[in-house]
């Protein structure tokens, strides 16, 4: 009898659309190992702000997607992060619970944050079905609401989410964290059996035959300038205003020598475009499907990651884009602080500067431009070796499979 595993994350995606695909890749691996895997996600795509599969009146559309059974669930639409976002979350939970009740009993349910209400609903379904429950902690909610959103710890919503968070830590059979620095946090709040399974790329996707020169020509990037890229969300947490202001400094001093591309979408993008209206070296591009990102990164000389300067990001993040950067074999410039900066410095993967400091970031970009090509290539090669040893999606999936095997035998 085959082992049935459910993976639940409201924001899970397949590779043909923009967004993270961790649940897809975990599910693919487990399916290839002989498990029966179902994924439950919202059909309302956050990046595209539209429904993709559901027709009017439908609450669930199920399809077989490359060995996975994928359940696209109804959730109410929203455009900006106001009260409609919370209605969206609650509506997804209601749909998930009733759809989950109609399904045959699984052996294991993996509920993935940041949507704690959906994770709690997944835990409830595990109790109803009498199966094991794993809590995958992608982001530390509600701590992010306090530090990034400016909410008071005494806020009723924050207190409610904190209660759910602690309940899940205590009641889950296993807790999986993506950031190694989060282990102490979750143990302090009640978790007992904790595993570190970080984000990481599927390395086979980065084994493309396209050269950097061919990639630049394909994407219309001039061959005679240094090209730096940021790929991913354009939200408050990403502090891309820092990169815009760094680009302004470079635009004044080194016009025509550097091109900085910001690829992606998010709540801050329109404001960022307005902020950068007079900056010639900065270009914005619309999101690409996840499966095209490896080819797009080949067109870059170097890659940039910025985040807000808050304590949580010093220990509690596992930026998927950073490991994609490593896998592309390109040097990186990070303005994050904490564990991320320390890793880049310790392994000599590029430049690490303080977060939210445009002058330091601009200086790092200048240093990058003045560094010989062979030294930059050596940085990229060290990044690739680090991915292979620590962040390979295949190695992470193997660890998860061993955990599951220990529970079903």
DSSP helix count?
A: 16
Q: Unreliable runs, pLDDT <50, ≥5 residues? A: none
Q: Describe the global form.
A: globular
Q: Give average pLDDT, whole number.
A: 93
CATH superfamily of the largest domain: Glycogen Phosphorylase B
Number of distinct beta strands: 16
Task: Summarize the amount of helix as a percent range.
Answer: 40-55%
What number of structural domains do the residues give?
2
CATH architecture of the largest domain: 3-Layer(aba) Sandwich
Order of strands across the widest beta sheet?
Answer: 5-6-2-1-7-8-9-10
What does this structure look like?
The chain has two domains: about 5-200 and about 390-409, Glycogen Phosphorylase B (Rossmann fold), CATH 3.40.50; about 205-390, Rossmann fold (3-Layer(aba) Sandwich), CATH 3.40.50. Helix content is about 40%, strand content about 20%. The protein has helices at about 20-30, 85-100, 115-130, 145, 155-170, 185-190, 210-220, 240-255, 270-275, 295, 310-315, 320-325, 340-345, 360-370, 375-390, 395-409, and strands spanning about 5-10, 35-40, 45, 50, 60-65, 70-75, 110, 130-135, 175, 195, 225-230, 260-265, 280-285, 300-305, 330-335, 350. The strands form three sheets. It has an eight-stranded mixed beta sheet with strand order 5-6-2-1-7-8-9-10, sandwiched between helices. Strands 13-12-11-14-15-16 form a six-stranded parallel beta sheet, with helices on both faces. A two-stranded antiparallel ribbon has the order 3-4. Strand 9 (about 175), helix 6 and strand 10 form a beta-alpha-beta unit. The two termini are about 15 Å apart. The model has no long low-confidence stretch (mean pLDDT about 95).
């Amino acid at each position: 009898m085959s082992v049935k595993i459910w993976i639940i994350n409201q924001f899970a995606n397949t590779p043909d659309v923009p967004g993270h695909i961790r649940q897809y890749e975990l599910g693919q691996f487990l399916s290839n190992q002989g498990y029966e895997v179902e994924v439950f996600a919202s059909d309302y795509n956050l990046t595209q702000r539209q429904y993709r599969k559901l027709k009017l009146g439908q609450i669930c559309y199920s399809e077989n997607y490359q060995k996975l059974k994928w359940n696209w669930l109804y959730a109410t639409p929203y455009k900006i992060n106001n009260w409609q976002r919370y209605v969206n979350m609650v509506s997804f939970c209601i749909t998930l619970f009733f759809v989950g009740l109609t399904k045959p009993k699984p052996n294991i349910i993996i509920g993935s944050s940041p949507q704690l209400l959906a994770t709690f609903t997944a835990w409830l379904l595990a109790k109803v079905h009498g199966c094991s429950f794993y809590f995958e902690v992608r982001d530390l909610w509600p701590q992010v609401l306090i530090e990034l959103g400016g909410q008071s710890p005494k806020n009723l919503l924050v207190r409610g989410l904190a209660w759910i968070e602690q309940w899940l830590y205590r009641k889950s059979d296993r807790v999986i964290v993506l950031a190694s620095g989060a282990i102490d946090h979750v143990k302090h709040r009640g978790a007992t059996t904790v595993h570190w399974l970080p984000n990481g790329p599927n390395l086979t996707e980065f084994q493309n035959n396209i050269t950097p020169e061919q990639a630049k020509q394909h994407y219309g990037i001039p061959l005679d300038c240094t090209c730096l890229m940021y790929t991913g969300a354009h939200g408050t947490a990403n502090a891309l205003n820092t990169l815009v202001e760094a680009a302004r400094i470079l635009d004044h001093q080194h016009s025509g020598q550097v091109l900085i591309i910001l690829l992606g979408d998010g709540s801050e993008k329109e404001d960022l475009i307005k902020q950068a209206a007079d900056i010639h070296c900065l270009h914005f591009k619309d999101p690409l499907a996840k499966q095209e990102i490896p080819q797009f990164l080949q067109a870059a000389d170097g890659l940039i990651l910025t985040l807000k300067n808050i304590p949580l990001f010093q220990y509690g993040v596992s930026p998927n884009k950073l490991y994609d950067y490593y896998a592309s074999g390109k040097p990186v410039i990070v303005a994050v602080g904490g564990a991320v900066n320390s890793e880049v410095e310790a392994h000599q993967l590029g430049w690490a500067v303080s977060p939210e400091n445009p002058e330091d970031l601009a200086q790092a970009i200048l240093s990058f431009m003045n560094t010989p090509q062979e030294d930059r290539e050596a940085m990229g090669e060290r990044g690739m070796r680090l991915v292979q040893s620590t962040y390979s999606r295949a190695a992470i999936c193997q660890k998860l499979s061993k955990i599951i095997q220990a529970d079903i035998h």
